[in-house]
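Chain A, query sequence.
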Amino acid sequence: MEKNYLLRTVSVATLLFFQLGFAQVGVGTTNPLSTLHVNGTMRVTNTDNTTTTTKLAGTCGQGIIADVKIGQNLTLINNELSAAGTDNSTYKVASVKLTTLAANQVFDNLDLQLNGVNAGVVVFRLYGSLHNFSIRGIQGGTEGRHIILYNSSPVNMKMDHMISTISTNTIDTIGTATSTSGIGTVELVYDGNASKWIVISIRD
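Chain A, predicted structure.
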């Protein structure tokens, strides 16, 4: 008799365990609509600040918690959310060596690592060129991406107008090809709708 009672007790406990394990639980509500449904305020204390956060969370109109995407202009590094790699008062600068083997060398689909190690860089200091050169296309353009190419060599840097071999990397100089007379800068912004770079200024 005792064995049967013990067996029934274990069976009921096991059944309750599995029901609770897979049921929807409500706190402050008798009609839970999610695995855990809290109707009211929620407080979390003594969080583990050593855990590295990789996502943000937010709620929809129904209160359901979901991941929040981080846009290209923001970064989440070491649990700190900030403007991508910089702030509005400073420009990050990266040096890129361009080796020219002959006069008027063409750099098509130039890879500046815009979506990699240089994601937060605005100013690119181009150095090492011994001959005049032209840039025909730039990889990694995204909507609103702003870059400044600083030609630090005493040679001409030319922007070729709309002739890149990859259409999404093309440069629109708003007219004919544009070049610096020696050391100078070219400022560009990427138009995502038109899928091309737009030259917005040039300075010698």
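The first helix runs from residue 2 to 22. The chain has a mean pLDDT of 86.
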